[in-house]
Amino acid sequence: MSQLPVDCLNEIFEYLEDDRFTLYSCILVNRLWCGTSVSIFWRDIYNYSTSNFSTLIACLPNESKEILYENRIIISPSTSKFPTFNYAAFCKILSINRVYYKIRGLLRNQQTVSSQNLNNYIHIMVREIFKMLMNQITSLKSLVFFLFSDEIFCLYPGAKDCLKNLTELSCSSDIPTELFYQLSQTCYNIQSFTIEFERIISNSGIEDLISVQRNLKSFDMTLCYDLTVDGITNIIPSLISKLPNTLIKLDLYGGDNYFSLSFITNFLNLQELKLSFSNDECFVNFEKLQYVTFPQLKVLIIREKYPRNELLIKFLGNNGKNLREICIGDFDGCNDNSLNLAIAKCCPNLKKLSTGIKCSELETLQIIFNSCKNLESIKIWCGGDFLSEKEALEAFAKYSHNINELVLYHLFDEWLELLPEELESFFINWTDNKSQKSFSLVVVNYDANSLDTNHENIEIIKKYIKLGVIKKFKVTNFDDEEYN
Question: What PANTHER family does the record tag this protein with (predicted)?
């Protein structure tokens, strides 16, 4: 395998990007493997350890090292030898916050740095690192900065070439307007733009940047709770109006901030629509959306509060046939049976569903399983007025068709603990009804009575993992983005 061409090795090592231990082992095999895998290992600055940053400092040009020395920032002997590779050139994903955080930790451990001068030393070292990165990175893919800084790094030599092919940008609204403006002079091909709107909004700079985008595909906007009235009623709508109609993904987290949603009707090519508001009044303008058909829409996620049932049902009537994923009212926990029945009727091609079924409406889950035969994953809310784990498992074993993942989502207290004999009965029924079909079982834990807290239940699950009935078992919480 060591004789494989570099292109083949690259293809293989790409699969190891998230497996740092194995990727590091590949670096140690031989020179060819090392040269091929090291660029992947150093691609994402989020993965840099403190020692990685020490190595990065060792890559600084001599003039930068002289500046550090003149300011009494002494590089430790372990970083004084110039590294084997120019590691800075490998970086493709750059987080400004991560650089500040790691450099702060690194300098705190330097005996020559006093606490009184720490912030000044951080600024000096970060500036020299940014100079090097802008000069050495030939094509940055992703840039993240949610930390206020006066450092206009995009003015450094080489920055234009470094940033010209940027495709992902994540930032907050309170960074200097000049930084947004300079980015707008260079970055025309951003495809994914994530922004958090704080009280301070560099509106003219953001407008400049949005206006020049030629191929923006994804826009993710979070509105903080302390936004001014002017920000909500004037600045935000003005910025939104600049969004190009090339969008296929739109994610809005508005909290309890109210602004018109009618602008969504401009994006008829949307494939994913995600809305999250904590106030019902934020959906007043959803009336206009109920009549619009989005022919490409595949994913609809509306968390916390959601529009009136009649509006949402009308929307599903127009758009449900193309939908592949639905999640409505996750945190609110108030799904109405009429809405669940509308999902069963209007969305026959769903592959992924998150829904709440009341204890008294168990037959609705049967209707969903019978109508949505392409379902591959279902997240069933448990506890409170919703189904118990026992009811959810029994319905899953009896009525599901092609589903290969069951998520038990504990929004509320589980009144009745699932007994080991009930869990065993579920697995017996599943194997009898589904023959050799395996599935993944995920428990999103909220209270002390979910099935995973019983040792006997865990032993039963281990048994069926060995038998091949369960291909994956996971217990997680609401912080897990994959199941949130």
Answer: F-BOX PROTEIN YLR352W (PTHR13318:SF95), PARTNER OF PAIRED, ISOFORM B-RELATED (PTHR13318)
